[in-house]
Write a structure and sequence with these properties.
heterodimer, B: alpha/beta, 5-stranded mixed sheet, 15 helices, about 30% helix, about 25% strand
Chain lengths: ~80, ~525
Amino acid sequence: MTLEESLKAYIEENLVRDKKPITLDEPLLERGVLDSMGMLNLISFLEEKAGVRVPDDDVLLENFASVNAIVETVDRLRANRNVR
Amino acid sequence: MGYLLWHYLAESARRAPDATAVSHRKDVVSYGALDSASTRLANLFTRHGIGAGMRVGFYLEKSPRVHVSMHGVMKAGAAYVPVDPGAPAARAAFILGDCAVSAIVTTSRKLEDLRAATPLPSVKLVVLVDHADVPPVPGVEILPWSAIDAERDDVIAARPAIETDPAYLLYTSGSTGKPKGVILTHRHALTFIDWGVELFGIQATDKLSNHAPNHFDLSVFDIYAAMKAGASVSPVPDEVNSFPLQLAQWIHTHGISVWYSVPSALIRMLLHGKLERFGFEQLRHILFAGEVFPVKYLRDFQAKLPKAGLWNLYGPTETNVCTYYKVPVIPAEQNVEIPIGRACENTDVFALTDDNQVAGVGEMGELVVRGPSVMPGYWGLAERTAQSLVRNPVQPAYGESIYRTGDYVKLRSDGDYDFIGRKDNQVKSRGYRIELGDVEQAVYRHEAVREAAVVAVPDAEIGAKLKLVLVPHTEGALTRKDIEAFCLLHLPRYMVPEIIEFRTSLPRTSTGKTDRQALVNELITS
């Protein structure tokens, strides 16, 4: 499973209350995913599954706005890590 | 002299109609506009026969229309019932049905969810804040928000409430597995707000944040202290709330001068919000309530925000804040938690020992509260009310009711009270009061669950995490994900257990009951 797929599955199973599927560019805020507990869960999921640490400066709405945005954030964090 | 909760708004609107009352994202509403819109809404309710002795439910996200609705309902002589907009429709429908609301203010989508959940026979009128393009409901009039435009704003047609009438009902977790409605009167709210505005010196120039949701009693202070002082209140937008850095920036750039929230929201900002980057020049007071604020984090807060006063406010929903404590500079070596302080003005507290004597200095007792801020009771629950509101044993001939908080405290020699712990099975997590039995009952509804027990795991950041120990009927028949998804459908998210463990049996006491203490002991020894 790609990160995109596992992330989508994780959000649908755990964070979307009405259990309806989400699309990759759907605003997660509007689906109620990004409340403070949802954010904590999402960050632990990324740190565990994607193996990246999300610095405080990157915990911003634009980086978590949709599944696509999160995948881009993870890619960028991984690239930064490789550069260093 | 104002004696109803909406009189604050009316008086501030008369004094300074153009001053900002509510500021939320791009919506800025003046006192004059809020007063006028809420009078129109009240007249709409009155024309539809909704007034004294009735309730109106809100099931919608924060926006200035909620403030219009609160005041509109009270001006119509009725009481409002704010329901968590994130609650599953089944829970919302239970609450709205329990207190038999006559009207609901909501959105078209949430109305659909409610209709799918359960019929609400008491509802005669629905006002939709977005659009009214929804299928008809037999016996219910559905109106768009714009319907208030046709109403008068120069006179309130309703028969006015009196100060001992309910102003609002707040539903909290209940031991029977169902939420229970705490009835709060106009007099209750005025007692608390008058004290707070005076103590914190709230003025028209202040900007109050509103972090707590409207169904949580912390929001009562934010909204009505602003209304009394003619100050502005700014609900924290959802898109900011979950992002500590953006939240810190929002407080700074919006010039928030009075912040009030549960400690966990502040701790998250302290740990992840880069507070050192912002000046917070306007921030005068930081108030917190709802759970213990660990002293190590308080000390860090003082180091980063030396100019802001920190205040520990204590009180159950049934009394709102009843004690307060101004946090002094905390020395580096201190590691005992701060006290909950002493009684607010026009409120009295003391502790009763198990044999109903007033506890002395250093003696443990259950904190009791007396005064006008004490609730008259739980909606429709006479027996439960009688357990909490009891005759004052100190002055039995007077016959007054006092509220037993269920919290153990100890009086210090300096007159402040220390909080010791809960008497019963309730825990606080992220400021929310959770009855562990509620969570168990929800889990038990899953057909594959044989046994379930929920215990609280102490957690420095959020107060407590919930641990669910589960025995399925057939081993391997349930996954963690199944049960989490099931909980999310039936419980608000803060009540969904963070830790789930599967077993083949639960420990038992000698009488055959589930041995919760054994589960708690495992936590201590593990």
